[in-house]
Amino acid sequence: MPRPTPKLTAEDVETATAGVKNKIGPTGRPLPDLPDILPPTRRGPAQVIAMCNQKGGVGKTTTTINLGAAIAETGRKVLLIDFDPQGSASIGLGVQPHDLDISVYNLLMQRDIRHDEVIRPTRVENLDLLPANIDLSAAEVQLVQEVAREYTLQRVLEPIIPLYDVILIDCAPSLGLLTVNALTASNGIVVPLECEFFALRGLAMLTDTIGKVQDRLNPKLEIVGILGTMFDGRTTHAREVLDRVVQAFDERVFHTVIRRTVKFPETTVVGEPITTYAPSSSAASQYRELAKEVLARCPAG
Questions:
Q1: pLDDT at res. 261
Q2: How far is CA 77 from the centre of its chain?
Q3: pLDDT per residue over 226-262, tens digit each?
Q4: Residue 80 dihedral angles phi and psi, to the nearest 5°
Q5: Which of 159, 154, 161, 170 has the alpha carbon at shortest distance from 221?
Q6: Are 106 and 113 in contact (CB under 8 A)?
Q7: Helix (H, G, I), strand (E, B) or coil at 102
Q8: DSSP category for residue 253
């Protein structure tokens, strides 16, 4: 008796149709034919995008660093704001948080501090960093006493927005006051989502918070997209989670999916993005494709 034909996965189809126009991507949908990104004709005003997920370990900081670097490759001026007291994005770009004399905390809480005193260039051309350290955790408590506390980051960013094309905010893994500040100051939000069940459960809570911010604080806030991260197409579980996200959010899910690779931990050690550490790797290509999608959805950036 012949064996039944095994069911093809999205990854199988993607491999089989390599080079074919409108091939099926890992999300099970035809991949869009995105045009090449043209260099910008002017500088600013920046699109401000919060990278947000209250669950930790979903690839949020990795995505912020590498998406920022990929966008910077297009000639756009990018500012990465480390808005997590752990300072992970700062470490990932070669800055040691405990060595900082001044950080985003000082810019938030001290009116006599100028942004050009805190912002620093990185090793990546066109990519600047507003670093953070553990001092930022005190801001969560101190901001409670402030008038219009949800708008503090927005006030700080007003003179910075004309200087950049894209500003990416790496949020802390929580839905506290710092994250609300980031959402209030942003035009859009990207949600990195690990292709795992517990990460999927927290998505409903996050979308509820986004809805409240839209209603009460920032009606211009929009979800730019949901990004599948740490995807392993060999496992049924990862494919099922990604399928459920696509069913629930449809076109809000990016076609690009970031796959698991051993190179991401290596980039953290050397303090640079994957696009410069391993520029010809598949992971670097994935972030360049993500940059195309993000810029296509935020054309003003």
A1: 77
A2: 16
A3: 998 888 767 888 888 888 888 888 889 999 999 887 6
A4: -105, 120
A5: 154
A6: yes
A7: coil
A8: E
Q: Is residue 199 classed as helix, strand or coil in its secondary structure?
A: helix
The residue type at 191: V
Query: What's the whole-number mean pLDDT along residues 74-95?
Result: 93
Residue type, 41: T
- ∠ CA 129-284-50, rounded to 5°: 40
Burial of residue 16 (number of CB atoms within 10 Å: 0-12, 13-18, 19+): exposed
Check residue 22 and give its pLDDT.
65
**Per-position b or e across 91-102, b if 16+ CB within 10 A of its CB:** bbbebebeebee
Distance CA 190, CA 206 (A): 12
pLDDT: is 98 or 79 the higher one? 79
Place of tokens 């490759």: 73
Please give the distance of CA 195 from its chain centroid, rounded to a whole number.
16
Are 190 and 51 in contact by the 8 Å Cβ rule? The answer is: yes
Cα distances (Å, whole numbers) of residue 207 to 210, 211, 224: 5, 6, 13
CA 131 to each of CA 22, 35, 86, 227: distance values in angstroms, whole numbers, following the listed order:
40, 33, 10, 24
Q: Across all residues in the chain, what is the average pLDDT?
A: 85
Token pair of 105 as six digits: 């905390």
> Phi then psi for 171, rounded to 5 degrees?
-80, 155
Distance CA 126, CA 165 (A): 10
Q: Please, what's the b/e burial string for 34-45 (b: 16 or more CB within 10 A of its CB; e: otherwise)?
A: eeebeeeeeebb
Q: What is the pLDDT of residues 271-293, one digit of tens each?
A: 889 888 888 888 899 999 999 99
Two structure tokens written together for 2: 């012949």
Per the CB < 8 A criterion, the answer to whether 44 and 162 are in contact is yes
Dig out the tokens for 70 from the structure.
Answer: 């990929």
Residue linked to tokens 């992970």? 88
Find out whether 263 and 277 touch, Cβ atoms under 8 Å.
yes
